[in-house]
Amino acid sequence: MQAHRKRKPGPSKKHAVPFESATVVRTRYPTLPLFTLEECFDYGRYADSPPEHRHFVPRYSKLKKAGGKSITFYEKWRRMQYDMNCVMKKFMNKAQVNLSVLPPCANYNLWRRPSWRKAYNKPLDEDPCPDCDVRFRWEKNVWKTKVAPASILSESRWPRNQFKDSVIMIGLPQHIAIGFLRFVGEDQAVFEFFDPAGPTGDREGVRELRKWVEQDLPRRIGKPVEFHQCHRKVNFQHDIDDVMCQTWIWYWVYFRVIHEMSPKTIATHVRTMIEENQSLKHVHRFNCWLSDLYNIGFRNKETVSQTNIAQIDTPRDPRTERTNIREVPSTSLGSPRRSRNESSLIRLSRQRPSHASRGSVSNRSYFTSAQTGSVSTVNRQSPRRVERTNSNVGTGTSRNVYRPPHARQVRSDAQRARAISPQPNEPTLIRKEIQRGKP
Question: Where are the compositionally biased (Polar residues) regions (predicted)?
Fold first, then answer.
């Protein structure tokens, strides 16, 4: 244990050992990377040796030092979850099992800048971009369930799943677990639930999860679901320094789905490692192996729509972009409040237009389109006045609306612009000679 604590998070080349014999998994997946219970592993056809890199390793000492208040520590932790998620997505595609890829926030500036929090109307202890498909929270003496918008469980994504079985990430209060939803017949499905904490886990949360699996999930998939909790009496995180619940869930999924091992076989091996005080070292090597796979390119990232969801849900500066982009606040005098960037763009649009700007979309109209979500076709030569109208978007608030000019007005503005600031194609010297009357 002391040797594990002193090890620095560097390349995992020292852990690489050759295989002694072929396995059933190698026969089934001849090109995939492989990790065995005996801690023998390789990288398949994707690499011959481990990459030289340093990666984040979750440790109890770091977590205790951060005290749950370091957003930088959480950002690294969330990034590690995302990397393992991408690697396991690649494995699940090979095994023909559905799995969500849940990207993190684009940035965590909200938690670094206290001035932003005043305009934020959501709980600060809740990640806007969840790390699980479904999250269970205890709020105001009531259990609340939230499905991630980028999850395969969402109403728009579930009908588009490619495969029959699915792996679902479960979020409990201050903990993460996982479930394997598999169909055992045409009219029956089984939900195998795995919690690394075992008997020390959140029993109330598991009870609420079971109610959701047996009542809500059948309405989503159209079939009755039987709930089964694996390893109730085995605490995979028996080591006091073990805070690697995110790695344990992928460890269990890898051997359950890829190796097709029974839950009893996995639990028996882990119980043996616990008795030998090698469980933390064992899962640490699996964590290093997943990190190596991500760096050599063995990964499947999220789709474009899932990336867009993460970018939209990332909190932004409330001074420039509000939570509801269709609303523009007004001052006490009734005139719309403008930011510094908008004021500079308005000043630029009021300057005398040049010949080269004809036919292009103005910066002012582009700024307004970014806020209202609409496309504007304002001509840059004649910026229209801002008219405050009551928008019919459900809130009744006022916003800036640019009305496109008529075709006759556009032609007259273009002719006026050419008359004011002509730009002939002739060089300056030739133009001076023509003005003097010389040929």
Answer: 357-381, 389-400
